[in-house]
Amino acid sequence: MKFWKPFFKEKQYKKNYYCNNQAIKKKNLLLIKNLKHNSKVIDIYLNINNHIDLYDLEQLCDAVGWVRRPIKKVKIAIDNSFLIACLFYYNKNKKQLIGFARATSDTSFNATIWDVVIHPDFQGKGLGKELMNQVIKQLRYYDISTITLFADPKVIKFYKHLGFTIDPDGVKGMFWYPL
């Protein structure tokens, strides 16, 4: 569980954090400088809790093959999220969305991470890990200690490498779906 230790040591956590929480909400943070992509060198930025273009998000989700969801419902989900995080780069002065994640929370004890997505052209470059790292840091900043997520079977290994476990105390999630 070496990965998690920095998140639970308050002094070390704040020291290693790129900037204070208020600053990160108001600007784009240069996260990765000089990433090689398709014979170009680009800079990757992180944006927390700022406006996201829903159509850019829809295109990102389409690129990974997710089932389309009604845009009005996606807007409601984002508006009711505790945290949204976006990764992007600039292409001819226009933001290109390449990563996204969001979390819901009771703002005190628990948070659930949802909709983690990295554009297929950028997968395998460590961006998913870095996005998750930043989301967890933000949640820990608010002293949220129980962080959960739902994962498709094909990505469980990815989350295990980040320190997530399956049913750590034998607790099983329960679901209710309308018939």
From TrEMBL:
Q: What CDD domains does the annotation carry?
A: NAT_SF (cd04301)
Q: Which residues form the N-acetyltransferase domain?
A: 44-179
Query: Which residues lie in coiled coils?
Result: none
Q: Could you tell me the keywords of this UniProt record? A: Acyltransferase, Plastid, Transferase
Q: Quick one: which gene encodes this?
A: ycf52
Q: Which SUPFAM superfamilies match?
A: Acyl-CoA N-acyltransferases (Nat)
Q: Which domain of life is it from?
A: Eukaryota
Q: Which InterPro entries match?
A: Acyl_CoA_acyltransferase, GNAT_dom, NSI-like
* Species: Apoglossum ruscifolium
Q: Which Pfam families match?
A: Acetyltransf_1
- What protein am I looking at? N-acetyltransferase domain-containing protein
Molecular function in Gene Ontology: N-acetyltransferase activity
- Keyword Heme assigned: no
Q: Which GO terms describe its cellular component?
A: cytoplasm
